[in-house]
Amino acid sequence: MTVQLAARDGASAVAVTTSSRERGDQLRKLGATHVLQRSGEAGEDTPAGYDVVIDVVAGPDLPSFFARLNPNGRMVAVGVVGGYPPPDFALRMFAMFQKSMSFATFSTDTVPAADRRAAIAGLFAATGRGELHSVVHEQLSLEQAALAHQKLEDGEVFGRIVLVP
């Protein structure tokens, strides 16, 4: 939903990191205007730099995106589905000290429960109005929960898997 929220709220260039061309196409359908591959590959029309990078994957490639930040740019990691970045990941950021970049993490665990509930209610309301769309990769029976977890771990899921009792 991050792509949809950014596009809905007027982000001028939505850059999304992805692992394949197919996923990039799916992200464009959700509102991404530019797509970077996790490897750092970018199309000809991709901007040279960004003011903000929101990374929901993290993993070993996280430091490569520091070079794409504009001066005073900010990178925010909101997930680690790709694993934690390498222990020395901040060295890349400090190597570009003159750009005054910042790195932050964000966890909804730090948001008061009432505020989280209000935000979730707002997302559901926007979905009900057709402003946002939930992306369902596939539906599996509850008995297939282990398979669902394996698919998530293997990185083959785009969106969510719905387990049906």
Task: Summarize this structure as a short list of keywords or feature phrases.
165 residues; alpha/beta; Rossmann fold; three-stranded parallel β-sheet; two-stranded parallel ribbon
Helix-strand layout with pairing:
Blueprint: H1 2-8, E1 15-18, H2 21-29, E2 34-37, E3 50-55, E4 69-77, H3 90-95, E5 102-105, H4 113-128, E6 136-141, H5 145-153, E7 160-164
Short description:
Helix content is 28%, strand content 23%.
Q: What quaternary form is this?
A: single chain
- Gap from first CA to last CA: 25 Å
> pLDDT under 50 segments (min length 5)?
none
Instruction: Report strand order across the widest sheet.
Output: 3-4-5
Examine the coordinates and then state which fold CATH places here, giving the name of the CATH topology of the largest domain: Rossmann fold
Regarding CATH, which class of the largest domain? Answer: Alpha Beta
Shape descriptor reads globular
Over the alpha carbons, how many angstroms does the gyration radius reach? 17 Å
Overview of the molecule:
The structure is a single chain. This protein is α/β, with parallel strands linked by helices. Helix content is 28%, strand content 23%. It has five helices and seven strands. It has helices spanning 2-8, 21-29, 90-95, 113-128, 145-153, and strands at 15-18, 34-37, 50-55, 69-77, 102-105, 136-141, 160-164. The strands form three sheets. Strands 3-4-5 form a three-stranded parallel β-sheet, with no helix packed on it. The protein is globular. The protein starts with a helix and ends with a strand.
